[in-house]
């Protein structure tokens, strides 16, 4: 029985091989070592989860100012809307964590994690959860304002949305495709699109990836 379909993106071949051979409950359907090849394999394979290093070669063109991981997410996500991204990096710098989460990653764990921890994180992200190594979660909460009384502000923001818009918001933020939201809520895709547009407008967000970060920071997923 096959496991969760995963693409591994890391510029160290030995590390990729080690992950491929040791991850539990995972079917590795592709690998990549730089931004360009990662975007191509993700579009071709449509994996459930991408395990993604933050710093990669091939950061060119319109993504020159981005980290490699950030560039992969921004370029690959439109072609693989149901794919979820999990950063796995040696870096625990706040700037790296925040940038990749802002780009749309569902979580961030460090390479000091055990095989069991990485496998569990992949399963959690595939199920729609957000996952962070414990010491990194504070960076995300601080960056997105989910501390020091911002919980009340989140409630005020949610009050702008109708009950149905809140349902759609949570599903979209968890990574559901429009057709999956339509099936879950027994509504048409056109209605889903209308609700998503309203949610983004009312929350003053510009994309579903910003919505995911917004909802994750407020623990709404």
TrEMBL record:
It holds the Pfam family GerE. Coiled coil: none annotated. Residues 5-126 form the Response regulatory domain. It comes from the Bacteria. Residues 154-219 form the HTH luxR-type domain. Gene3D superfamilies: 3.40.50.2300. The modification 4-aspartylphosphate is found at residue 53. CDD domains: LuxR_C_like, REC_NarL-like. Keywords: DNA-binding, Phosphoprotein. This is Response regulator transcription factor.
């Amino acid at each position: 029985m096959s496991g969760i379909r995963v693409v591994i993106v890391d510029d160290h071949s030995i590390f990729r091989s080690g992950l491929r051979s040791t991850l539990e409950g995972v079917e590795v359907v592709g690998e990549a070592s730089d931004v360009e090849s990662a975007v191509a394999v993700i579009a071709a394979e449509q994996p459930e989860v991408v395990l993604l290093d933050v710093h990669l070669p091939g950061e060119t063109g319109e993504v020159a100012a981005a980290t490699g991981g950030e560039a992969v997410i921004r370029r690959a996500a439109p072609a693989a809307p149901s794919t979820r991204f999990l950063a796995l990096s040696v870096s625990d710098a706040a700037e790296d964590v925040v940038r990749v989460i802002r780009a749309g990653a569902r979580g961030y764990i460090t390479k000091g994690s055990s095989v069991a921890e990485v496998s569990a994180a992949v399963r959690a992200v595939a199920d729609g959860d957000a996952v962070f190594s414990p010491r990194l979660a504070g960076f995300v909460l601080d960056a997105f304002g989910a501390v020091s009384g911002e919980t009340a502000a989140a409630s005020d923001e949610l009050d702008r949305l109708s009950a149905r818009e809140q349902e759609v918001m949570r599903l979209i933020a968890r990574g559901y495709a429009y057709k999956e939201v339509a099936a879950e809520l027994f509504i048409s895709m056109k209605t889903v699109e209308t609700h998503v547009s309203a949610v983004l407008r009312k929350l003053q967000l510009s994309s579903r990836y910003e919505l995911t970060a917004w909802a994750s920071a407020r623990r709404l997923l």
